Model the fold of this input.
Amino acid sequence: MRDVFVLGVGMTEFGKHPDLSLQDLGRQACQAAIEDASIKPAQIEAGYCGNALASVLQHTTSVGQSAFWEVGIHKIPVVNVENTCASGSTALHEAWKSVAGGFCDVAIVLGVEKSVMPKGTALNVGMANLEAQLGDIFPGTFGMMATRHMKEYGTTREQMAQVSVKNHLNGSLNPFAQFQKILSVEEVLSSPMIADPLTLFSCCPNSDGAAALVICSDDVARQASRKSVRIAASVLTTGGYDNQRDLTGWEAERSAAEQAYEFAGLGPSDIDCAEVHDAFTICEIMHYEGLCFCPKGEGGLLVDEGITALGGALPVNPSGGLLSKGHPVGASGVAQIVELTWQLRNEAGKRQVENARIALAQIMGGSQQGDVCASTVHILTID
Done:
């Protein structure tokens, strides 16, 4: 297999964009990534697009072809990927395999979504799952997980609230983030209850937005005018769906992390910063444990000690994460790589992690039998 590099990145602001279509958002992100890569659209040999909800919300398909055509990319293989919240990161995984395997030298990866809905509207997806048919929805599921984690390990409401405070502070430093407001622990805890113990500011928003990457082979990267970020590992896995309903972690996440560390020849202690799937505050705490940043049950302590804050030993979600940056479902996994590429290139501005050389991105999606339907982990490095 060949080494694969991130040659260019770009994204739109995340938030509410009622006047922009999927194609508009995709065009903006792709143009930015192509310009950042200093290449021409004609040099791109394959396209991969992650989108989770267009067939449900916009009643459209072939999102990738439409968006790529907007920037002059056509007559190439285009693959559209739906893998719930991991749609964008799965698109990257497939593109990475294509470049690593020698099937193309330059590929573009787009994640794009318009998931903002009228207030009070329920997102009717995943209804093949029995629990969903019986009325369970994601806030309820993660509320149960939080309650169980509190009972088993002593995790507190204040620790979970501090995750939101940290990520909103980071988001206030990110011009692409949906929310720019700094919160206090008291504001998080006193916001409207969604699914006990998760309040409104413990939950990520639905968002519109797009993010894009241009990735390439080592031969192309060597010709670039600056050092490129290497994708040291790209792992996609699913759950075994036999974990006997352990509500305090995900088998698929731990498996993906272990595979990624082994592939990259690195370990948890080597990671300088990370972007993780903080759809709810409890998620981030559980990801600390699933990614082996700390022993099981000690995720809350990392928050207490400031380890995962900017300036800490392992900053997590310097972009603001899903809680502050926003969560346009199919775009989130790609946006994580955009952020970490900026971090490794020392281009993250006021939220820059000092001396960042190795970074990890984790995102997951879907739910089945107590585990996730898709889990990805990417590790990025720069010389």
